[in-house]
Specification:
single chain; about 475 residues; alpha/beta; eleven-stranded mixed beta sheet; globular
Length: about 475
C-alpha cells in the first residue's frame, strides 16, 4: 500500500466577495491535512486579497487574481479555471486535487481522520465522490461545526481525484472519463450511468464516513446578502436560490465535544497568528452592508425583478425582508390588472405564446391560431406536459433533422433558465439532451440546470 508521505493533495477554489468566510474554510482544510490551497479570486470588491495575503505569510495558501480568465472564458469560467488549476497542480508535483466552493467543507465523520488517512483507508481510489450534507442549522456568522447539526443528506457530490488518471473534462461536481472508477464516501464503487455524473440516483439515508458539508444558506441575514452577489450572467441578484431552507430538516450529524473544543482552540490561534480579527470585522461589515443593499434594491424592483425577489425571499422571517416581500406581492397583484404584466406572470400562457411563435416559424399557421385562441380564452390553460406533447406533434409535421429539433428545445430551455424557472427549463433541456446526447453545449446547459439549487416545488410556488 502506498505511503501517505508520498501523497500530495491540493485543494482549489474560486471565490468572489467571500472574505468573511475564507479564514475558517482555509484553517479547516489545512487542519485536516491538505498540503496547499489555491484560490482564484474574481470580480471581488471586498477585502479577500488582504485576508489571503495575511494568511499566506505563514501558511501554504496561494491567491490568484482570475479576472482576466473570467473575462475571456465567460460561461465556461469555472471549468476553464479548474482545468488550469489541475494543470498547475500536475506541474507542481501534486498527486491529487479537490475542487470545493467556500461554502463546502470536506468532513470526516469521526472529525479526526485526515484527508491522506482517508485516501489510505479507501485504498487510494482514482476518484472519490463525496455527498453533500446541506447545513440547515446556522446563526449569524456562526462556525460551521457544533456538537449536533441538523440538515439534509443530498445526492449531489463533490470530487477528489488522482491527477495521473486520464479524464475527458473536469466539471463543476465531478471529473469525467470513460475508464474512470468512481468511489463513494463509504468505500463502495459507483457507476453514475449518465454523462453529467454530478449526483447519485438517490440521496443517502445516512452520512458516509466522509462527506461534504454544504453551507448553502448560512443565517437568514447572510442568505439575503448572498442574493446581492449576483449571477455570472450579470443579473444584479443571485436567483439560483428558491428561498431559505424549510424548517424541517430530516437528518442529523454529531461530533465529539472534546474534539470540537480543541479544533476551535486551534482556530483562535490561527486567527491571532495571522492577525485576522480587524480584517474579519471589515469583511463582516461588508456582508451586513450588502444585506441592506438587497433590501433597498427590492423596494424599487421592477415587476420582472419583483417576481425574483418574492421567490428568493421565501421563508425568511426577518422583519425587514418580510415587509418588503409583502409589499412586492401586493404591488404585483395590482399590476396584474395590466394584461401585459398578467401575461408575463402566467408561465403557461408564455409557453403557449412561445409555441405560437415557433409554429409560425415552421409555417404551421392553423395550429398556431389554435394555440393563440387557447391563450386568450377563459378555458383552462394547457400544462407543461401537454405543451411538450403539442411541440412533439408540431415538429413531426416538418422535415427537420433531429439536431434542429434538439436546438429548438435548447432555446426554450435557455429562455426559462434565464428567468430562473428551473422546473420548466429542466423539461426542455432534458428533451434536448435526449435528442442530442453528445451536444457539448446542450450538456453544459443540462448540467447547469439539473444541478441548480432551485427545486421544482420552489419554482412552481414562487409567489
Amino acid at each position: 500500500m502506498r505511503d501517505t508521505e508520498s501523497v500530495k493533495v491540493k485543494l482549489a477554489a474560486i471565490a468572489r466577495d467571500e472574505a468573511a468566510y475564507l479564514p475558517e474554510w482555509i484553517f479547516h482544510h489545512l487542519e485536516f491535512g491538505f498540503d496547499e490551497i489555491e484560490i482564484y479570486i474574481n470580480n471581488t470588491s471586498d477585502n479577500s486579497l488582504k485576508v489571503l495575503e495575511a494568511i499566506s505569510v505563514t501558511h501554504p495558501v496561494v491567491a490568484t487574481n482570475a479576472d482576466a480568465l473570467y473575462q475571456s472564458s465567460n460561461i465556461n469560467f469555472q471549468p476553464s479555471a479548474y482545468k488550469e488549476l489541475a494543470d498547475k497542480a500536475i506541474a507542481d508535483g501534486f498527486t491529487h486535487i479537490m475542487f470545493l466552493d467556500i461554502d463546502e467543507f470536506w468532513t470526516p465523520a469521526d472529525f479526526q481522520t485526515t484527508i491522506k488517512q482517508a485516501l489510505q483507508k479507501l485504498h487510494y481510489p482514482e476518484v472519490l465522490c463525496l455527498n453533500w450534507f446541506i447545513h440547515c442549522d446556522e446563526d449569524e456568522f456562526s462556525s460551521c461545526y457544533k456538537r449536533r447539526i441538523e440538515g439534509l443528506n443530498d445526492r449531489h457530490v463533490k470530487t477528489l481525484f488522482q491527477l495521473n488518471i486520464h479524464w475527458d473534462k473536469i466539471d463543476i461536481h465531478n471529473v469525467i472519463g470513460k475508464e474512470i472508477t468512481y468511489t463513494r464516501g463509504d468505500g463502495s464503487v459507483f457507476n453514475f450511468g449518465d454523462s453529467s455524473q454530478c449526483a447519485i440516483t438517490e440521496r443517502p439515508k445516512v452520512a458516509h464516513d466522509f462527506f461534504i458539508i454544504h453551507r448553502m444558506f448560512r443565517s437568514q441575514m447572510e442568505y439575503i446578502a448572498l442574493i446581492g452577489r449576483g449571477r455570472p450572467n450579470k443579473d444584479k441578484i443571485k436567483t439560483s436560490r428558491g428561498g431559505y431552507y424549510t424548517k424541517n430538516p430530516t437528518d442529523i450529524i454529531s461530533f465529539e465535544a472534546d474534539r470540537l473544543n480543541e479544533y476551535y482552540r486551534r482556530f483562535e490561534q490561527f486567527i491571532d497568528e495571522c492577525q485576522l480579527s480587524p480584517l474579519l470585522n471589515e469583511s463582516r461589515n461588508f456582508i451586513r452592508e450588502r444585506f441592506e443593499n438587497v433590501i433597498e434594491w427590492a423596494k424599487t424592483a421592477s415587476p420582472d425583478d419583483a417576481v425574483k425577489f418574492i421567490k428568493v425571499f421565501q421563508r425568511v422571517d426577518l422583519s425587514k425582508v418580510a415587509k418588503v416581500r409583502n409589499k412586492l406581492i401586493n404591488e404585483l397583484k395590482l399590476a396584474s390588472l395590466d394584461s401585459g404584466v398578467l401575461t408575463h406572470y402566467n408561465n403557461s400562457s408564455l409557453l403557449l405564446l412561445m409555441l405560437a411563435k415557433l409554429l409560425k416559424k415552421l409555417g404551421l399557421d392553423r395550429l398556431r391560431l389554435l394555440v393563440l385562441l387557447k391563450v386568450t380564452n377563459s378555458t383552462p390553460i394547457l400544462d407543461i406536459a401537454n405543451i411538450d406533447k403539442s411541440l412533439n406533434h408540431a415538429l413531426s409535421k416538418v422535415n427537420y433533422p433531429k439536431q434542429q429539433h434538439a436546438d429548438i428545445y435548447r432555446e426554450l430551455a435557455i429562455y426559462w433558465y434565464e428567468r430562473n424557472e428551473m422546473a420548466i427549463a429542466n423539461v426542455f433541456i432534458s428533451k434536448a439532451k435526449e435528442l442530442r446526447p453528445n451536444g457539448s453545449y446542450i450538456m453544459r446547459l443540462y448540467n447547469e440546470i439539473s444541478t441548480s439549487d432551485s427545486s421544482p416545488d420552489n419554482v412552481r410556488n414562487n409567489v
